[in-house]
Design goal:
Largest sheet: 4 strands, mixed
Strand order of the largest sheet: 1-4-3-5
CATH architecture: Alpha-Beta Complex
Enzyme class: transferase
Number of strands: 7
EC number: 2.4.1.186
GO molecular function, one term: glycogenin glucosyltransferase activity
CATH class: Alpha Beta
CATH superfamily: Spore Coat Polysaccharide Biosynthesis Protein SpsA, Chain A
Strand content: 5-15%
CATH topology: Spore Coat Polysaccharide Biosynthesis Protein SpsA, Chain A
Organism: Rotaria sordida
Family: Belongs to the glycosyltransferase 8 family. Glycogenin subfamily.
Structural class: alpha/beta
Helix content: 25-40%
């Protein structure tokens, strides 16, 4: 049985898995160090095409929810936490599916140059700043606690209130100890690693119990 069927047949609470078409990466990958994450990141634009849902909460695969976040469904589009450089981080955000928005995004994406949007975060920031009727709203930082912000002055306060932890650097808690990441000390913090390890063990135990 493949992973898809295992998830759907389990009691995990997952009701459906939706296949989306890989969007063609529009920019020259030979002139830059393009990771697979950047190329695949644009697939999140498909969120605006999921018109069977009125409100969507997007989470990057390297995030971990540690507190209840149901209140996110009450927030308007586009809602995301502020990142370095005055832009919002698109690893966690609130969106509202709308076919008109999706079609406009696809039109712009196909026509765009490489000047501002070689990754999805720049594209989404540009779109909701310059193109969309929706405004950018700022989530409190506890909804997107980025691991490599641990050296900032506000870290202790955000750490205590964190609802979603985001391992946004190249070093992940499941790989930094065997993959050659030169800057892993910057991205991995002891308490965060311990929280991830606890969550990993709970999930493993739950999967074994449910068969």
């Amino acid at each position: 049985m493949n992973a898809r069927k295992q998830l759907l047949n389990s009691n995990s609470g997952i009701s459906s898995l939706i296949d989306v078409k890989q969007l063609e990466y529009r920019f020259n990958t030979l002139s830059m160090n393009t990771s697979r994450n950047i190329v695949c990141g644009f697939n999140k634009l498909h969120l605006w095409n999921l018109v069977n849902y009125t409100k969507l909460i997007y989470l990057d695969i390297d995030t971990m929810v540690v507190q209840n976040t149901d209140d996110l469904f009450e927030k308007p589009e586009l809602n995301a936490a502020l990142d370095i450089g005055g832009v919002v981080n698109t690893g966690v955000f609130v969106a509202q599916s709308l076919l008109k928005t999706f079609n406009d995004m696809m039109l712009l994406y196909k026509m765009s140059s490489s000047s501002y949007n070689r990754d999805d975060q720049r594209f989404i920031n540009w779109y909701f700043t310059n193109r969309s009727n929706s405004k950018i709203h700022y989530l409190p930082l506890e909804y997107n606690r980025i691991s490599w912000h641990k050296d900032y002055q506000i870290w202790d306060e955000v750490q205590a209130q964190a609802k979603i932890i985001h391992f946004a650097g190249k070093s992940k808690p499941w790989s930094f100890f065997y993959m050659p990441h030169r800057n892993w000390e910057r991205n991995i913090e002891g308490q965060l690693f311990y929280k991830w390890k606890q969550m990993f063990e709970i999930v493993q135990k739950t999967i074994k119990q449910k068969g």
